Amino acid sequence: KIMERAVAEAYEKGFLGKNIFGSGIDLDVVTQTGAGAYEVGEESALMESLEGKRGIPRIRPPFPAVVGLYGGPTIINNAETIATVPHIFRIGAAEYAKIGTERNGGTRLFCLSGHLNRPGVYELPMGYNLKKMIYEVGGGIPNGKKLKAVVPGGSSTPVLLPEEIDIGMDFDQVGKAGSMLGSGGVVVLDET
Question: Across residues 83-107, what is the average pLDDT?
Fold first, then answer.
């Protein structure tokens, strides 16, 4: 309902629709509620779901930009990507790319969960140090307990041990630690 209201407001103010601000550009946005399955976060699984099929990923190629929703070229961006657009417009693409690391610019939403004093969702620069994220942003481990392990990027990533967490959270550095930065869901486990 919030998204539908925001889209309606964008039409009312002329940001969406026909001939936006006299530019000759037409842009329509349609919202579609999904079933909420985790797998449908993957773009081709989302297209399957929107077409009324079971929400499982498609085999590639063809890639969605060539053959996507209903067989047409399709580009899908998630809410996290779209949320960065106003910031990029405000400071410019070149400045936004300077945030984070050289090969992994910009920011990322990190969901800190598990045994932390301040779990939550934090927008941080790509490459932000995982150890600092746990102990400074997340407030450390409660009740004086010791860190046992960290799942750095969702359920599909391998577990990191305490001696492996002094790394930047981007696709290059976490990859060197034998893991992959996936969903941005960081799960912290204490010694219990």
Answer: 89
pLDDT of residue 35: 65
pLDDT at residue number 178: 53
Could you give phi then psi for residue 15, rounded to 5 degrees?
-75, -20
* pLDDT exceeds 70 at position 65: yes
Predicted TM-score (pTM) above 0.90:
no
The 185-190 sheet, strands edge to edge: 120-125, 107-114, 185-190, 147-151
Token readout for 42 is: 């993957």
Q: For residue 184, what pLDDT band results from cuts at 50, 70 and 90?
A: low
**First and final C-alpha spacing in the chain:** 41
